[in-house]
Amino acid sequence: MEPWQLTAAAAAAKLQDGSLTAEALTRSCLEHCAEREPFTKAFAYLDPMLALANARRVDKAHAKGVLHGLPLGVKDMIDTADMPTSHNSPIYEGLRQGRDAACVGVARGEGAVVFGKTDTVEFAAAGRRALTRNPHDASRTPGGSSSGSAAAVADGMVPLAFGTQTGGSTIRPASFCGVYAMKPTHGVVNSEGAKRYSHTLDTIGWYGRAPADLRLVAQAFRLFGLETPLGKAPGQLRIGLCRGPNWALAAPESQEALLLAGRRLEAAGIAVEELELAAPFKDVTEAQRIVLMGEGRGAFLQEYLAAHGLLHQDFRDRVENADGITAAALVVAYDLAAECRKRFDTLFPRFDAVLTPAAVGEAPVGRQDTGNPVFNSMWTLLHVPCIGIPCTTGPNGLPVGVQIVGPRFGDAALLEVAALVAPAIDAGRAG
Asked: In this structure, are residues 121 and 180 in contact, taking their beta carbons and an 8 Å threshold?
């Protein structure tokens, strides 16, 4: 097995015991990138010499952090001190902020090798699409807006990558590309230094190729409760199978993925119970859209005034309030979100996690349609942690995943549940 083929957790063990160096792992990833990047186009910026310099610096470090030596892709709307942050926008092409975003600073502090900047939908929001292709089929999208991050991990170019989620931009690409992903509880990871779209929704997330990979990054961010084991065996778990209010929009392959995951869990001795959410949850998807568009007005006002001619029409529409969002509608949306957050939290500890679709179906053809976030936006507004798990393939052989969801600040328990259920849901692949 070549070093690039190792999961982050497997590589971390070798890096910690000294049987693998950061430089050797980074070289292996770079060699694999040289082969795959012309096909996948995951990176907006990749300087092999800089990546190797970062790796050598890590190898010289006296202490070994939890991410020691692990190459990390960073979504190109998250600032990096030693690389440009373009936001996939002509307004900021080649921009160097000269400092790391908070999440990048934490990763570096824990020994990660900042490897390169992964391509993104413009401002992680709308407008221009990433050039990235789905690594399983070049004619299809990897999803958005964390297009390059999901594809780079899925294609073995890096073991870990940062994404963000405002609607479905972390979990949906994970489903399309067939990798694991985590969107933590809103606010537990400092988003300073990442382009702001919606202060209510924006969340830093990450990708890996196994549940243990996700846990490593969670440890770096000191998520609440990691020091307290869940203390359950698989047979002691109870999972709520939730079709959700948008079930009719799911393609047959996504419906089958959810039901298949439920059957696999039951076969593994895990209790699965049908869960129907209360009536107010039916309106949460629309509430998320109102919050997204309402807060997006101010998010792009600076660019609207300073570089109007270079700003994509999608963002001009937001600033000009083309959707007619009113202050009253925003208040209603905020109040509904607050009510449903409390309601959802009351489902625990009756359930250890809620199992629900991760995407409408397989990855769409082309780059323009990055997929409908309808199976993610509700959970983003509810501020709850979500973990994407690969499950099956659709009619065209493309990955179709599911996600498990926990209560606010239940990230640590959800990571343990993921480790327990993934071997069943992702039969033959989970680690």
From this structure: no
